[in-house]
């Protein structure tokens, strides 16, 4: 039997990282960025525009939703700039809309086709943050490997 230390660890080709403003998401981003650099992998930074944080008038206003999406895109560009400054050459941004866990698993992963999803253990919004249910949902239903960072 071959010694485990001599085996080459799996290298990832495309890493998807979900970010929001929580401290755990910041750690997840740092882990994903460093892993992408080590593996010479593409890094895809994703965030979800959560419609349950909007009131009915905001949700119905195309201008409001467009403004929220534009603000989120600018925020993600700061993550992209940081990743590029540390030497990553393949960095993309993806924005989804809806429930974070479900949107990432059912829409973002099939579209991006990563081989690793990296997320923080806590969500910054609502009651869910106390139970980490978004991370638990993604770990349970994701078709790719999931790294939950805390």
UniProtKB/TrEMBL annotation:
<dbReference type="InterPro" id="IPR006015">
    <property type="entry name" value="Universal_stress_UspA"/>
</dbReference>
<dbReference type="InterPro" id="IPR006016">
    <property type="entry name" value="UspA"/>
</dbReference>
<feature type="domain" description="UspA">
    <location>
        <begin position="12"/>
        <end position="150"/>
    </location>
</feature>
<dbReference type="InterPro" id="IPR014729">
    <property type="entry name" value="Rossmann-like_a/b/a_fold"/>
</dbReference>
<comment type="similarity">
    <text>Belongs to the universal stress protein A family.</text>
</comment>
<dbReference type="Pfam" id="PF00582">
    <property type="entry name" value="Usp"/>
</dbReference>
<protein>
    <submittedName>
        <fullName>Universal stress protein</fullName>
    </submittedName>
</protein>
